[in-house]
Amino acid sequence: MRRELGQLLMLTALCVPGTPAFALDGDASAPIHIAADQLEIDDSEGTAVYSGGVDMQQGSMQLNAARVDIQRGNNGQVSVVTAKGGSRRAHLAQTPAPDQEQVEGWGDTVIYHAAERRVELVGNAELHQGGDTFDGAYVEYYLDSRRVSARSSRSGEDESGGRVRMTLTPQQTQQ
User: Fold this and answer.
1) How confident is the model at residue 159 (pLDDT cuts 50, 70, 90)?
2) Which of 13, 18, 93, 111 sits between 20 and 30 A of 25, alpha carbons compared?
């Protein structure tokens, strides 16, 4: 069991969006620290479930949620990380580069697709990228290209009657 836990923790390191394309150079090699009230591992299913005030950190990346589920694919690599907020929204934050502001995302559910390096913020979704903000029922963020897509619902149909909102902050020119 100890060997399997070690393997899962190592695989957990692969799921955290802490690679040089989106993070500070040292993030990918930084140790991962996870604190939770409870951990359940099913090595035969390739899953780990952390619950109760989950705090994950690797370098500049921070993930806070009530519950975090990690799934591995057939190849043993982490495929999907799903964070659920509980009474507060799940929160993900990371600093892209030393000279850039932290990118932060919130959602009732935060889903990270490791192979695609894509984050879905689902339900009360909000993304802050520099001075720009995006919010709606669903916000999708591609880590490598920094592409953002937002909708008033996950399926693209306006089920809630809500709207997608965006605030763009002009860059200040140096004088």
Assistant:
1) low
2) 111
